[in-house]
Backbone:
């Protein structure tokens, strides 16, 4: 079985990264983690990945004069590894169209709401304020418009009486850890070999 290479981008603790790593450690999973990249040198997820023997790199956005320069350096790291699919896992930077377009169809994100509802931040607070009966998470393709890409996988959870944003977030996070590996498995069956991509 040919396995696709994942480039995982993080900014923090990397809980969804960890879920993907654990999935990739299963012999029948059709992917492996090629590299973990963070825009923050202090991201706890870097040490988690290093502890599992995975290559890591830092592209600190604060060290670059603009987004274009940051993204060109990010692309250089990706070029140095066999990456078929980019997985944004708590990556707290908005990527520009020049970076995304060459990767379209091969860059995905996980969002803590049932898109197209509750794009952006503060999703759990907004769900509770609107007295919704259910929430969940969405793995979707990344396109230049934020949180607008087509849905790959969604998982739902009930919103319970007395829920706080933290309580709802914890329940949604459990579903995120199921949804992301499921989405990677779906896409692995569609991706045929590595294609050279990048910013011109």
Residues:
């Amino acid at each position: 079985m040919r396995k696709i290479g994942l480039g995982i981008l993080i900014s923090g603790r990397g809980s969804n990264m960890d879920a993907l790593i654990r999935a990739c450690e299963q012999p029948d999973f059709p992917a492996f983690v090629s590299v973990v990249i963070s825009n923050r040198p202090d991201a706890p997820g870097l040490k988690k990945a290093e502890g599992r023997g995975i290559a890591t790199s830092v592209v600190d956005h604060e060290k670059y004069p603009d987004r274009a320069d940051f993204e060109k350096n990010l692309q250089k790291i990706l070029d140095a590894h066999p990456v078929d699919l980019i997985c944004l896992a708590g990556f707290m930077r908005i990527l520009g169209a020049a970076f995304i377009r060459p990767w379209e169809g091969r860059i995905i994100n996980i969002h803590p709401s049932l898109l197209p509802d509750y794009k952006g931040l503060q999703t759990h607070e907004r769900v509770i304020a609107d007295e919704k009966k259910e929430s969940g998470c969405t793995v979707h393709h990344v396109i230049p418009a934020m949180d607008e890409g087509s849905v790959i996988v969604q998982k739902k959870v009930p919103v319970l009486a007395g829920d706080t944003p933290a309580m709802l977030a914890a329940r949604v996070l459990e579903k995120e850890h199921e949804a992301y590996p499921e989405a990677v498995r779906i896409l692995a069956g569609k991706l045929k070999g590595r294609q050279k991509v990048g910013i011109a």
